[in-house]
Amino acid sequence: MSFKIFKELTKFRLSLTVLFSAITGYFLAIDSVNYFNLSLLFFGGFFVTAGANSFNQVIEREYDSLMTRTNKRPIPAQKISLNNAILFSTIISILGFILLNTISFKCFYLGLISFLFYIYIYTPLKRKSSVAIFFGAIPGAMPCLLGWVAAVNDFSLASGVLFAVQFFWQFPHFIAISWIRDEEYKNAKFKMMPGKNKSNFAPLLSVIFTILMIITSVIPFFYEIMYFEISKYAFLLIIFLGLFFLLKSFKFLNSQNDSSARKVLLFSYIYLPIVQILYVIDKFLLQ
Asked: Which domain does 114 fall in, by range?
């Protein structure tokens, strides 16, 4: 298998993006770095995510062949056989679970829940109802929780806040994707648009969940949470980013076109990693 096929089958950049959230969760929880556990988290988290992405393409191979955006993926384009894709997905998934279990059983458990939700609930539900976005947001928000548990082997209110921020963030993000790709999704029999058709319902949901995301992101400033506090400097920057995100969502609600949806999507890619980086910088440099 060439590296190009490996990248396409695992959705390499997406897997690294997910991993970034896990590393953020780890650094927010630690006082000193355990480089062995950090390495296990990095590779274990990557392999589980990559395995889930690969299995997703195995399951959706017929639907991928119907969309211009996905018909050149390795399986529909016959760059790799179905059996080899299944074998590859199985091997890297098992390897990922072994590495996470080496950290702790709780890490293995979180990885397994995320994997099963993505493959057995979110993936098939995409063809039945837009509620798939809700169920997809659960494994999508799991990495930061996984990173926290990898550091301290326990759950906490702080890890719950990190989970909630990323959970709420996914709604404007995926609603924007669903809006932009609505026709393509419908041609492939995916039901990803809230409200079934383009209307003010989906942009309104985007606004609501953006507000929830902003509120959740600054909870550590107003309430004392063990191991997770933010300074006034981080608070102001996070509020600024959140309000800018909200402005994009309101413009999407007002105009209801692909251009405004694309601006929401593009800023969502910027917003989450910057906020997570601010959390980490604030902990080690600003407090």
From this structure: 1-129+144-150
Q: Is the pLDDT of residue 1 over 70?
A: no
Distance of CA 154 to the CA centre of its chain: 21
Select from 117, 150, 183 the last residue of a domain: 150
Helix/strand/coil for 129: coil
CA 208 to chain centre: 19
State the pLDDT confidence band at 196, using cuts at 50, 70 and 90.
confident
* Domain match, 104 and 180 both: no
User: Would you say the pTM of this structure is higher than 0.90?
Assistant: yes
Q: Indicate if the pLDDT at residue 286 is higher than 80.
A: no
Own/partner pairs, 230-238, CB within 8 angstroms, 24+ separation: 230/279, 230/282, 231/282, 231/286, 231/287, 233/282, 233/286, 234/278, 234/279, 234/281, 234/282, 234/286, 237/278, 238/275, 238/278
Q: Is the pLDDT of residue 102 over 90?
A: yes
